[in-house]
Amino acid sequence: MNITITIAGTDRTNDIVFDSIQKTDAVNEEKDTLVFSVDKYASRGFVPEVNQEVVMEVDSVKEFGGAITQVKKSLVDGQRVVFEVTCCDYTQFLARKLVLESYSNKTVDYIIADLISKYAEDFTGANVDCDITIKTMLFNRMSVPECLEKIAKETGYYWYVDYDKDIHFFAQEDNVAPFGITDSNGKSLRNSLKITDNLDQIRNSVTIRGSEERGVERTETYVGTTDQMIFPLANKFAEEPTVEVDGMPVDVGVDYLTKEEDADCFWSYEQKSLRFKASMAAKKVEITGIPLFPILVKIPEPVSINQYGIYEFFKEDKSITSRAEAYQYATAQLNGYKDGVIEGEFQTDTAGLRSGQIINVKSDLMGVDEDFLIQRVTFKPQAKDKAIWSVRLATMRTMGIIQLLQDLIRYRTIKEFDPENLLTLAQLDDQMTMTDVCTVPKATTAPPYKWGAFRWGFGTWSET
Fold first, then answer.
1. Which of 51, 108, 271, 413 is 20 to 30 A off residue 281, Cα-Cα?
2. pLDDT digit string (tens) for 345-364?
3. All structural domains of the chain
């Protein structure tokens, strides 16, 4: 194994204290980091500076790319200087400009390509793959990483910047590790594989509350009582209903929005009522419309409940607009969490793993055959020709939930409501010049001079 570190285009591998090198990348952390020390004494070593570009390669494959963001300097024995260097990956360069944009009816692929062309010219998007259409999306002075994170949360996708400045935006299931772990393939170091089962997040009775579902058109029939003008409705209608009085259609308005003189009766969505301007005593009132039903689904998992006892879970998601969606979501939650979660860790001397990848662990000795999400990868050289990657894992049983949400999103249009207006102020360069002239009469006599009376004019003196 050959490890090289280049700083500002110069190979500085021999100047770096090798046992100080550590590179970390983790899910939900915005940047990968690389730390190392430089020991400078007399002519040995060099002085690292912030903003210098840093590239680390392992067997000619990039393991890190970024720039120095912090240098701590310590004077030792009055002769030697130790520099503790912290580097962040290229993601930090994406945050240099603030985005002020709005998009309507554009795919994620289009939006990210547009952001790159306008705000990240040094980056590419060869690995952006998301054809979900966004109805409206606003970015009000946000950095490009913040924009990408915002889109990722809306779509259930993931993103990162690789060490060649290419942006990756992808569905989680597409990000598969280059190798898996078995009892015999040698990819995990001896005695390093550890798997832990726990019940921290067990869920075996799931209740999902969505918004409201449109039903089949129905008619409510009433006969007015003495002086009755307001009719409470049994159903909350999705839209303005039609109304007949004694078999004759009447004009319907929306309460508090329609003028009194423009309709015969007024429908209230929130109050679930119909108001007339005159008494409907003994009259037959028929109200026809599309009713809305609240979505509430509860599903237990008997096998898990018998084994562990009941563990209830409740989730409210107003983006769920049908009982079928609520049922799918509840089922996915049960499949993901009915047996708790599994965590793991191992060490390897094989390069290629990054946080966010999916890796399969199959161990007949442990009785494990599971897909895991790589949560954190820490790289640390042991010598100039040897390194170890320490890997932390979390179960991917929740993958069914993620895939379900992605599928549901594809059948919806994402619309964001932002109370702020996108405001751009242009600074104008404007100038105004004023000149004031004072004209003094030329003396015609010898001193001492005698002045006459003067009148002030605009910009000049004039004798009177």
1. 271
2. 999 999 889 988 899 999 99
3. 3-89 (2.30.300.10), 176-201+340-397 (2.40.30.150), 205-213+294-337 (3.30.1920), 217-289 (no CATH)
